[in-house]
Amino acid sequence: MFKILKYCFFDLMRSSWSYVYFGFYLLLGIMLLFLNNDLSKAVITLMNIIIVLVPLIGTIFGVMYYYNSKEFTELLLAQPLKRSSIFLGQYLGVAFSLSMSLILGLGIPFIVYGLFKSNAIWDFSLLLIVGVFLTFIFSALAFNIALSHENKIKGFGYAILLWLFLAIIYDGLFLMSLILFEDYPLDKVSLIGTMLNPIDLSRTLIILKLDISALLGYTGAVFKQFFGTSFGLIISFSALLIWVGLPVMRIIVKSKKKDF
User: Fold this and answer.
1) Domain containing residue 145
2) pLDDT tens across 26-48, in order?
3) H-type helices in 114-216, by residue range?
């Protein structure tokens, strides 16, 4: 699996898409620092972009890589290699390459600007950690979709629909349910509902770390009471690990049962 991961990683790092992805974040970091002239404000602005864009890129790139490397995958399947090793290696290669572009693209301008001398270093570090988690989560979900659908159009369609649901539609449905049942105690329900969506969970963690939870009103107070504690942080990152682990396990199971 390590050899396949290494090959996929370096193959993707030589790809023009990786340079475009890296260049986008590099320019984004430079522009934000130039306009805001404040690391803390730049991190807050960056949060809104990362939370939406990283899952979208991870989903599309994961599906695209699977379909484009199908012939290479069939060649590997003809070799005495485990199916799970092949697909896990490809998945990890995609996730690591996207994460590397994200970290370097944003890290370089912030470090040059004096990140290590600023108090915003911990907020920025959390932002990158959350971005890496989202990359691994949505790349895994993308591979699951691609493994389940041979048709490229269906695969891309379901991938976009998944991102659209988790990034936009889920929030609307969740908010409507809270309004409809506002007469009932919804503290635990809101916490569970947030953990069921990795994008919402990531956004909540960053907002609380940036200490702008007052923007969330009463819900923000509930979240801060839970997520602001050490136990809450452990549970939150455990939930993100589960969001990574479950799709990866399904990739292993699906690759063993799939008829190629």
Assistant:
1) 2-257
2) 998 888 888 877 777 788 888 88
3) 121-148, 152-164, 170-180, 187-195, 198-209
